[in-house]
C-alpha cells in the first residue's frame, strides 16, 4: 500500500472522525481509523459500534490497500507536518512510513481484518432533506433529550414519518419526562416507502448529524434500514445504530389548546429569564411566572442569595395566576426557537405549559410545572 495526500486534506478528514475513534475504547481497534486507498481516493472509516463515519478524500494512490492506524496519535503527527504533500507506505508487518522530504515517522498499525465491518448503505431507502431544515429541527428538539442512562429509550431523538391529509412529514420528538419537544416538516418525496420506518437516534449520533448540517443549505441523503440510520453529505457518510427500545406515546402528554395564552417577544423573554435566573442554583432551580392584567412578572427567590424580579408588558386580560417552572428547562425551550414571537399557553399551576413559535406552529415544547 502506497499513496500520498495533501496535509490539509488529510487533517480535515481525520478531524471529522476524532470523536468516534475513542481513545479509551473497549476494543483497542475502535481507537483506530481504517485507511482504504484505491483509485484516486483515500477512504477513512471510524466506528465505536454505535456511530460510524466514512470520509472520502482525494489522494494519489500508487498501490491500493488497507491499514488501520491509531486515530488520535496519527492526527497529532499529521498536525505537525508542514502544509505539503505527505507520503504513506505500508510494509508487510503493517508498520507505516509517513514522510515528507527529511521528515520520517514509522507508525505501528493493525491488519485491516481486525476492523469492524461498516454496514452497507441501501441507496434505495434514501430520501433528500435540506441541511438547514434538518438543523432547525434538531435545534428545536436537542434540549429535551434525557441524560439518564437508565432511560436508554429517551437518550436520543425519535425520528418518524407522519401522514397528515395525504402529506408526508418527518417528525422529531424528544423527552426526559419533565419536558418534551416536537417538530415536523413536510417531505418532498413521492414514494412514501422511502421513509417506511423511523427510530430513536442516540445523542452521540445526533451530535455528529449536527456537525454534518452546520453552515450549509445543501440537501443531504437520509435513510433508515436494518436498525440503522444513515446521513450522507458530499464526501461524508454517517451510519448510526438506532436505540433498541420503544419511544413513549408522546401524543398523550401534549395538552389540548387552552384559552389561556399570551404572545411574547422571544428575545425579551429569553433575556429576562436569563437575567433573573442568575440567582438560581442546583438546590433552588425554580422560577415563578405570574400573569397579571397587561404584564408578566418573572420572579426568583433563593434563600442562599436573595431574590430578583422583572416585569414584561404583554396583552393578557385573564385571571391572575402564578406558575413555577424549572428555570433551566424554560430557558432551553425558549432558546430553541429562532423567531420573533412565541405563544405561551397554560391552563393552571399544575398543568404543563406549551411553547410554540408563532411563525411555525408545527413545533412545540411542553414543560411540566414545579412546586416552589
- In CATH terms, what is the fold-level topology of the largest domain? DNA Polymerase III, Chain A, domain 2
- Tell me the name of the CATH class of the largest domain: Alpha Beta
Largest sheet: 8 strands, antiparallel
Shape: elongated
Low-confidence stretches: none
CATH homologous superfamily descriptor of the largest domain: DNA Polymerase III, subunit A, domain 2
- Count of discrete alpha- or pi-helical segments spanning 4 or more residues: 6
Distance between the termini: 67 Å
Q: How would you classify the quaternary structure?
A: single chain
Query: What percent of residues adopt helix (DSSP H or I)?
Result: 10-25%
